[in-house]
Specification:
The complex is a heterotrimer of chains A (328), B (304) and C (240). By secondary structure, chain A is mainly α. Chain A is 71% helix and 0% strand. Chain B is mainly alpha-helical. In chain B, strand 1 and strand 2 form a beta hairpin. Chain C is 38% helix and 25% strand. Chain C has a domain of 167 residues: Rossmann fold (3-Layer(aba) Sandwich). In chain C, the strands form 2 sheets. A 6-stranded mixed β-sheet of chain C has the order 6-7-8-3-9-10, sandwiched between helices. In chain C, strands 2-1-4-5 form a 4-stranded antiparallel β-sheet, covered by helices on one side. Classes of the chains: A mainly alpha (328), B mainly alpha (304), C alpha/beta (240). Chains in contact: A-B, A-C, B-C. Chains A and B meet through helix 4, helix 11 and helix 13 of A and helix 3, helix 4, helix 8, helix 10 and helix 12 of B.
Chain lengths: 328, 304, 240
């Protein structure tokens, strides 16, 4: 295997992952950037998509739900539907809450989902997760560059489709109402537009995209475990959106690529620098660096690389804290 | 069954102290600080470091307790260290975001800060759990086993309960009798009026962080003492603390205290029903129930 | 008598590019009551708040006993001798009457007990209800507490934002009588008011703000019968 093929394989692997993240971040952008909904439990919806798709497509397993062995595309569709349904349930229960309560509630949802994944052996195989998730064209392509490249192509296609669909949606009458709600909720209400219904639709759609991303991840890597969906994942996704620019779909995609790149590079650098027995510490440092990146971004350039100027301040509808609005 | 009460109250005391700090900063700064759990963890590890520095792991324990004087000496140091971290993060990050009016973004920033802090601890101390002492505790039987399964308390648990009560009593006196305490309550009620009344609200905010961090660090030591000192210590208590604060009504110290005890008891009493693995989920269920039934909590004001 | 408070060409507003006060000037001497009048939206409340330091000042000057204070943080102004009574939510509802006063006294320093005793002498009704939570007071009593709270700090200048709002005419008179008493003690009072007739009866001088600028000013008695006063209100807000 020549060096070039190795590099190309890694590049395809890297970009495929970036694309998978992009799908999820597009969903998050719809919820936060366009609708102002604060979902701190993104990892939970991604997990739902991954597990549902895995369960639908894996062959029979003793003592475990599954055995449907459906085609992969059916798995992906099922993942989006399941995550969308979860979004519906959570949305109906929590969307009317004020922003910080919504954040806490969605965070709780993710924790609960992770607990179920970890403990309900009959659903998710417990801490060991689910294995042998079928990879598309696995038999013909095997592993390495051909598979990575083919998967990348599929992911890119899906990202392009999602992007195009979202862009049209945002410019459609439906999207304009959403923007009106975001700008001035009271005015939108008075015009007879049912604010809650629109918000719920956006939330469900965003959740479905997150689930799809989860499924794409599952079928790329081939196995999933509860520890793949920890709060750190939510944090990575939010960092991607903030860095790329909330309220802008291209920003969402760019953010995914950039932050994933920083993550992968810092991971590689730290692995090289740290001695073998301190690898866990190196991984910890990686998180610290990303945390600092997010904080710096929020303070220095809150609109991200491509985001709208006022996307963030517009959502600052919470009451002012004690030291705000100091004159002079 | 009675034993569950004791366990619940001990956990509840820890949650209560943490929730009080959380509700104080929440009501003054108007944002849900997802990093509050890490203040507990930092307190626990800071105390660990001090005990270690004082060669305290091998120090003779005081009376029936598992710890010696080094742990007691560590408490104020841990509080100071935690307060410093809280003030630093506020100055570097939260205050700047507040100045822009980006109130909601603060939550994501706090989430990020939490992860960064937790992993900094992981980097510094490693992934293995630690203990303040290797002493084995003998539980004292308060109620014989024949009565509802009996009730046994370890001296450490009694210490936790006692100190928690003492802290809450001291806090009540502070908030109701001292100028700074009244200034804090006033600023939480109406920051503009507080300024106009001559209160330096920026100083009050700093004082609130110090107070919240102090309570959190004590709670962290409690958690480390009755369990283990590990990097996920505070994060695991985050949902219960939010549940307690919301149950009590955000901004109400009494509410957070009661809420903490209730959440601790609920978690403990639900364990035989849900199974020990789902302990954390019971806090989540509590939050959902409260938000659906009475979002302002026990002592909070109805919809702002 | 030299002026206790001088405001010159003040430009102020909540948002940086949108000034509500667009260049207003006024002055008040010790023991004098100056009424600030004007139609809704004229910026009189904003002017009061800008002077007090809770609305940002874009340009202009505010001098308290000759010392420039424009843009200073509100809490520092209290120490310098400027008191402000907001229109709404002007007491700490969950603190007792006594605590409301104690807090205000504590931030300006000793002698605390003496200050509070002095205030209770001036407001005997409040003394009777000292332990009651401020939120439980009647509307009139609450307004008195709001004024008392500002007075505890012994201000040289007291700015009030529509103190008669929401009060019956009788209660409003009660408050105004108290303000006259306070002025006699030497405090300079800036009275932002919607109730034109009552304000002009109390005040010595007045300014009328229209669209952020001073349109009229003069002796209160003279203004009360000045036809331009009604014009300034565009025919509405006839002297109540």
């Amino acid at each position: 295997m020549s060096d070039l093929a190795g590099i190309a394989s890694y590049a395809a692997f890297f970009l495929a992952f970036a694309g998978i993240f992009a799908v999820v971040v597009l969903g998050l952008n719809l919820q936060w950037g366009f609708t102002g909904l604060f979902n701190v439990g993104v990892a939970g919806f991604v997990a739902i998509g991954a597990y549902v798709s895995a369960i639908l497509t894996t062959p029979d397993h003793p003592e475990q739900l599954g055995g449907f062995a459906l085609p992969i595309l059916a798995g992906w569709a099922g993942a989006a539907v399941a995550a969308g349904l979860a979004g519906l349930v959570v949305g109906v229960a929590a969307l009317r809450l004020r922003h910080d309560y919504l954040a806490i509630a969605t965070f709780g949802v993710a924790v609960a989902i992770q607990l179920v994944a970890l403990n309900a052996q009959w659903i998710g195989g417990g801490p060991f997760g689910l294995h042998f998730i079928p990879k598309p064209f696995e038999s013909t392509l095997g592993a390495g560059l051909p598979f990575n490249a083919a998967y990348l192509a599929q992911v890119v296609a899906i990202v392009a489709l999602a992007y195009a669909a979202l862009e049209r949606l945002v410019r459609s009458p439906w999207g304009r109402v959403l923007r009106a709600i975001r700008e001035d909720e009271a005015a939108a209400e008075s015009l007879g537009k049912r604010v809650f219904a629109f918000r719920l639709q956006a939330f469900v759609l965003g959740s479905a995209l997150m689930g799809l991303g989860g499924a794409l991840y599952a079928h790329f890597v081939g196995y999933i475990a509860p520890e793949d969906f920890l709060p750190i994942l939510t944090f990575q996704l939010w960092t991607m959106l903030v860095v790329g620019g909330a309220g802008n779909n291209r920003g969402a995609i760019l953010g995914a690529v950039v932050v994933w790149g920083v993550w992968a590079m810092s991971g590689g650098a730290l692995r090289a620098m740290m001695p073998a027995d301190a690898q866990a510490r190196g991984a910890a440092l990686q998180v610290v660096l990303i945390g600092i990146l997010l904080a710096a971004m929020l303070v220095l350039r809150p609109r991200g690389l491509l985001g709208e100027e006022t996307a963030i301040s517009r959502h600052a509808a919470a009451p002012a804290p004690a030291d705000e609005r100091r004159p002079g | 069954m009675l034993q569950l009460l004791v366990d619940g109250l001990v956990v509840g005391s820890t949650v209560a102290l943490g929730a009080i700090g959380l509700t104080l900063t929440y009501s003054l700064l108007r944002f849900a600080n997802f990093g509050h759990g890490e203040l507990l963890t930092i307190g626990a590890y800071a105390a660990l470091a001090v005990v270690g520095a004082l060669a305290g792991f091998a120090a003779p324990p005081i009376g029936p307790f598992s710890f010696g004087w080094p742990l007691l000496a560590a408490l104020p140091v841990a509080a100071a260290a935690t307060a410093l971290v809280a003030l630093a993060v506020d100055a570097a990050l939260f205050a700047r975001l507040r100045a822009r009016g980006a109130a909601i973004v603060l939550i994501i920033a706090s989430f990020g800060a939490a992860l960064a802090l937790r992993n900094l601890l992981l980097f510094s101390f490693g992934p293995l759990p630690e203990y303040y002492s290797r002493e084995i505790q003998i539980a004292i039987a308060l109620v014989p086993r024949s009565v509802l399964g009996g009730m046994r308390v370890t001296p450490d648990q009694a210490f936790v309960l006692g100190l928690a009560l003492a802290c809450m009593a001291a806090l009540h006196l502070f908030l109701s009798r001292t100028v700074l305490g009244k200034a804090m309550r006033a600023t939480a009620m109406n920051p503009d009026l507080a300024r106009v009344a001559g209160i330096d609200t920026a100083a009050v905010i700093r004082a609130t962080w110090i107070l919240g961090a102090t309570l959190a660090s004590v709670a962290g030591v409690f958690a480390g003492l009755t369990g283990q000192v590990r990097t996920t210590l505070g994060f695991e208590l985050l949902l219960p603390m939010f549940a307690a604060a919301i149950l009590g009504g955000v901004g109400s110290v009494l509410g957070a205290a009661i809420g903490g005890l209730v959440v601790g008891l609920a978690e403990s009493l639900l364990t035989p029903v849900l199974g020990a693995e789902y302990r954390a989920a019971s806090a989540f269920l509590a939050i959902i129930a409260i938000l659906l039934v009475r979002p302002q909590g026990l002592f909070g004001k109805a919809a702002r | 008598m030299s002026a206790a408070l001088v405001v010159e060409d003040l430009v102020a507003g909540y948002e940086p590019g949108l000034p509500i006060v667009r260049g207003a000037s006024l002055s008040v001497a010790a023991g004098e009551i100056l009424a600030v009048l004007g139609p809704n939206g004229a910026g009189k409340s904003t002017l009061g708040k800008a002077v007090a330091g809770i609305v940002p000042v874009a340009s202009g000057s505010v001098r308290l006993d000759g010392r420039e204070i424009a843009g200073d943080p509100a809490h520092r102004m209290v120490r310098l001798g400027l008191g402000f009574v907001p229109q709404t939510e002007n007491v700490f509802a969950e603190l007792s009457v006594e605590d409301n006063l104690d807090l205000a006294a504590a931030v300006v320093g000793a002698p605390r007990a003496q200050r509070i005793a002095g205030i209770f002498e001036l407001f005997p009704d409040l003394a009777r209800q000292r332990r009651l939570d401020a939120g439980r007071l009647s509307g009139g009593q609450r307004q008195m507490l709001a004024v008392a709270r500002a007075l505890v700090a012994s201000p040289r200048v007291l700015v009030l934002d529509e103190p008669s709002a929401g009060l019956s005419p009788k209660l409003a008179q009660h408050v105004f009588a108290k303000l006259a008493e306070i002025a006699r003690d030497g405090v300079a009072i800036v009275l932002v008011e919607q109730n034109v007739r009552a304000a002009l009866a109390l005040a010595g001088r007045a300014v009328v703000l229209v669209e952020g600028r001073v349109r009229l000013e003069g002796e209160a008695a003279a203004l009360a019968i000045d036809p331009r006063l009604r014009d300034a209100f565009l025919g509405r807000g006839e002297a109540a």
